[in-house]
Write a structure and sequence with these properties.
Strand order of the largest sheet: 6-7-8-3-9-10
CATH superfamily of the largest domain: P-loop containing nucleotide triphosphate hydrolases
Strand content: 25-35%
Radius of gyration: 23 Å
CATH class of the largest domain: Alpha Beta
Number of strands: 14
Helix content: 25-40%
Structural class: alpha/beta
Order of helices and strands: EEEHEEHEHHHEHEHEEHEEEHEH
CATH topology of the largest domain: Rossmann fold
Distance between the termini: 49 Å
Number of helices: 10
Length: 315
C-alpha cells in the first residue's frame, strides 16, 4: 500500500451542518483519529453521527468546517480522499441475486480497478472474511452474518486506509457479532484505521482504543477508552452466592446492593472503597460468596452520564 506522511487518518475541524428545515445537526465538531486506531463514535439517536459520517464520505454537504483524510481535503481533492475511505453502511445494499465474487469485482470496477487486479483481490478479501466457499453462490442464500461480512469484504476491495463502519452488527445475534469482532480486529491489526458507530456499548469497549461521544451535534466526551472509563467514580461487581440470599441485604454505607435473583447480588460502590468492607458485611449477614466478577457495563455508565450532563448543560 502507499505510504502516507504521519498525519491524522481523519481530521475534522469545526464541522457544522444546518439542514434546509433549520435543524442544526452539527454544531462545531472537531476531532482527530490517528492512523491505525480503532475509534468509536457513539451517541444517542439523532445526535449527529449519521450526518458526520455522511459528510466524511461525501454523501452529505457540510455547511462549514473542514475534513481531511490522511491530509487530503475532501473539498479540493474529493476523488483522492474518497479512494482512501471504505464505507460499510448499516443497510445491506448489494444485489441479492449477484454472487459474492461478482459483487466484489464489480465494486472494484466502479473505482477503476482492472478486472485482472480485482479478481485475485476479491479472492483474498473473501477468504479473509471466511466467504470463499460461498463465492459462486447467490448472495440471497447467505446467512445474516455472512451478508454483513460480505459488506466489509466489498469495502476492502479498494484497499482503503480508513474503514468506516456504521452499525455493522445491527440485528445479528451475539455469536455472529463476536465472530465479526474477530474479523474487524484482524483488519485493524493489518494496519487499517477503523471508525465504528454502534449502539452495542460492549462492542465499543471490547474493540476500540479511543472514542468520542456526540450529543445534540456536539462532542461531549473524547479521548482514550481506558482514561475516560477511569474517570468513573463508581465500580460495579456481580457476586454469585452459595446459598439463597436473605430477604434483608446488609446495609453498606455508600453502596447500592440489589438482589438480581436468589443467588446473584449486584453491587455498585465508590472506586476508593475497600472491598474488604463488603466481604465483612456479607460474612456478618451469613452470605457466602462463591465467585465475583466485574460488571461489563462501564462504558454504558459513562455514556449515560456524559449524555445526561450535556443535556443539563444545554438546559
Amino acid at each position: 500500500m502507499t505510504d502516507f506522511p504521519r498525519v491524522p487518518a481523519l481530521s475534522v475541524h469545526d464541522l457544522r451542518k444546518t439542514y434546509d428545515n433549520g435543524v442544526e445537526a452539527l454544531k462545531g465538531i472537531s476531532l482527530d483519529v490517528q492512523p491505525g486506531d480503532f475509534y468509536a463514535l457513539l451517541g444517542p439517536n439523532g445526535a449527529g453521527k449519521s450526518t458526520l459520517i455522511g459528510i466524511i464520505s461525501s454523501l452529505v454537504n457540510k455547511t462549514s468546517g473542514s475534513v481531511k483524510v490522511f491530509g487530503v481535503d475532501i473539498d479540493s481533492h474529493r476523488d483522492a480522499a474518497m479512494r482512501l475511505i471504505g464505507l460499510v453502511p448499516q443497510e445491506l445494499n448489494f444485489n441479492m441475486f449477484e454472487k459474492p465474487l461478482d459483487i466484489c469485482v464489480n465494486y472494484a470496477g466502479f473505482y477503476g480497478i482492472p478486472r485482472e487486479v480485482a479478481l485475485p483481490r476479491a479472492e483474498a478479501v473473501l477468504k479473509d472474511a471466511f466467504l470463499w466457499d460461498k463465492h459462486d453462490k447467490m448472495s440471497r442464500t447467505l446467512s445474516g452474518g455472512m451478508k454483513r461480512r460480505l459488506m466489509i469484504a466489498r469495502a476492502l476491495m479498494t484497499e482503503p486506509r480508513l474503514l468506516i463502519l456504521d452499525e455493522p452488527t445491527a440485528g445479528v445475534d451475539i455469536e455472529i457479532r463476536r465472530g465479526m469482532w474477530e474479523t474487524l480486529k484482524r483488519i485493524n491489526a493489518a494496519g487499517t484505521t477503523i471508525i465504528l458507530t454502534t449502539h452495542y456499548l460492549e462492542e465499543a469497549e471490547s474493540l476500540c482504543r479511543n472514542l468520542a461521544i456526540i450529543n445534540h451535534g456536539r462532542i461531549v466526551a473524547e479521548g482514550p477508552m481506558k482514561a475516560l472509563l477511569a474517570k468513573l467514580d463508581v465500580e460495579g461487581f456481580l457476586f454469585d452466592i452459595e446459598s439463597e440470599i436473605p430477604q434483608q441485604l446488609p446495609h453498606i454505607e455508600g453502596t447500592t446492593l440489589i438482589a438480581l435473583d436468589n443467588h446473584t447480588i449486584d453491587l455498585e460502590m465508590p472506586r476508593a472503597m475497600d472491598l474488604n468492607r463488603v466481604f465483612e458485611a456479607f460474612d456478618a449477614a451469613g452470605i457466602r460468596v462463591r465467585s465475583m466478577r466485574t460488571k461489563s457495563n462501564r462504558l454504558e455508565e459513562l455514556f449515560v452520564r456524559m449524555v445526561a450532563d450535556s443535556v443539563e448543560t444545554q438546559a
